[in-house]
Description:
This protein is of the alpha/beta class. The protein is 37% helix and 19% strand.
Amino acid sequence: MxxxxxxxxxxxxxxxxxxxxxxxxxxxxxxxxxxxxxxxxLLTRLDDPIPxxxxxxxxxxxxxxxxxxxxxxxxxxxxxxxxGPGVLVPRADSETLIDAALGHFATRTPQRILxxxxxxGTLLLAALAEWPGATGLGVDASPAALDYxxxxxxxxGMADRAQWRQGDWTAGIDGLYDLILAxxxxxxxxxxLPHEVVGHEPGEAxxxxxxxxxxxxxxxxxxxxxxxxxxxxAIEIGHTQGEAVATLVRAAGLSATLVRDLGGRPRCILAG
Length: 272
């Protein structure tokens, strides 16, 4: 009998052709096939028979389909989010924004949070998990993304604290917010991306003009009217865009602080 342990080794070798994290991919797919967590599988199930459907999941990964689309979920910060075709897959790099916000609000709780380009609710729901006394609004242009956001908010028990709105960035948004989170598209239209990204994830959540700055030019000038006193905006950036976005922030009359991710790359501008 071929065990799951052996199957994982074989799957890892195959997935290495299309992924930089083949062992992790194989383990996540196997845990999904088993219907348990990856941790539980690694602790107690490696000598089990190969789970039904595992090979089919591996075959899907070999077409460059994102693991999160195959399993239907992705862990982010302290929460688990449902994801699928039509939404941007949450990335660990975006956790930099939550970490930076926690540093700013070390001694108080942001009462009102705005998440621009919320996708499946990624940043807003992670922030609400950190601050149980906060409420928030997530805005996105995509009905598919907002459907995931609503379901994620309900699944996490935050339906009464999170509101969702289909919209065009800050257009029609009123009131003051203590924390504004934004992960806009920032890839230039001429830049190349891995096939699993450009071939599966929505282009409107990735590309923003020839220099990747089109959406920052729309969002940043409106931040001063939406930020409450003492509030900040945490804006995700591409690793080459720190100075360009900081210049836009300063032109809007706000201070700009660059924050790096765990890999040491520029990842966030704090505006306040």
